[in-house]
Amino acid sequence: MKKRKTILDIGLMKEQQDKISVLTAYDYPFAQIMDNVGIDIILVGDSVGSVFSGYDNTLPVTLDEMLYHTKAVVRGSQQALIVTDMPFMSYQIDKRDARLNAGRLIKEGGAQAVKLEGGEHMASTIRTIVDMDIPVVGHIGLTPQSIHRMGGFKVQGREEEQAREILADARAVEDAGAFAMVLEGIPSGLAKKITESVGIPTIGIGAGAGCDGQVLVIHDILGLCDKYSPKFVKRYADVSATISTGIEQYIKEVKNGDFPTTAHSFE
């Protein structure tokens, strides 16, 4: 029987300088493919709102939607550690809500850990969830649930004062008990400094090569989302073109009466 990675395995990877691979997934087929090729962590991201549901940002995503997608990903995986995002308004109001909703993502969704955005101002919320024995991944720098405050998806930490604040956020997230943290949209030098300053793994997205691991959105790397193209995304395949070709051929055969043939019919 295959053994699923744990947070202890992920922590050991930092100690051994073994880079951590992370991708998002929102459904059973993608989770199955990722798991079979050895991805370390699957993140059920609230990015599902943008790339899967067509929203302009992550803010409309609900807890019920995250539960649905988390269940599908868990069923499709056996080896990867499954981390699921806590969506906007599921942890910001009060700690009771945060504990309840984190618990639901673990109990009902089947995830092994939750991720929430915010640094020093969310440290006590991270701590209260960790105190329930629920592993937490922090997320600092560019936090998509804060786009209105940040004025959009902009690189954070280029100015010295803001860089100090992000470094303080990193230390607060670690002190609160998170077992890892995502560093998004920050200068590579700052990300490297944070990675060397904390004892927990850092997972970068638009944060350079100095992090302990990297995360990208699966639809971005496969060419399945043309809504935006951030500088930090690398396209590894053009699956969209392959799918389009297949669908065009299907339409043509249906129109011409070439499908179905007797091979695809019952007597």
Description of the molecule:
The chain is of the alpha/beta class and 267 residues long. The chain folds into two domains: 7-236, Phosphoenolpyruvate-binding domains (TIM Barrel), CATH 3.20.20; 239-267, no CATH class. Helices cover 41% and strands 13% of the residues. The chain is built from eleven helices and eight strands. The protein has helices spanning 7-15, 28-37, 48-51, 63-75, 95-107, 123-130, 147-150, 160-175, 188-197, 218-221, 239-256, and strands spanning 20-24, 41-44, 81-85, 113-115, 136-141, 180-184, 202-205, 213-216. Strands 1-2-3-4-5-6-7-8 form an eight-stranded parallel barrel, surrounded by seven helices. Strand 6 (180-184), helix 9 and strand 7 (202-205) form a beta-alpha-beta unit. Helix 2 (28-37) crosses helix 4, helix 5 (95-107) packs across helix 6 and helix 8 (160-175) runs parallel beside helix 9 (188-197). The longest helix is centred in the C-terminal third of the chain and has 18 residues, at 239-256.
Brief write-up:
By secondary structure, the chain is of the alpha/beta class. It folds into 2 domains: 7-236, Phosphoenolpyruvate-binding domains (TIM Barrel, Alpha-Beta Barrel), CATH 3.20.20.60; 239-267, no CATH class.
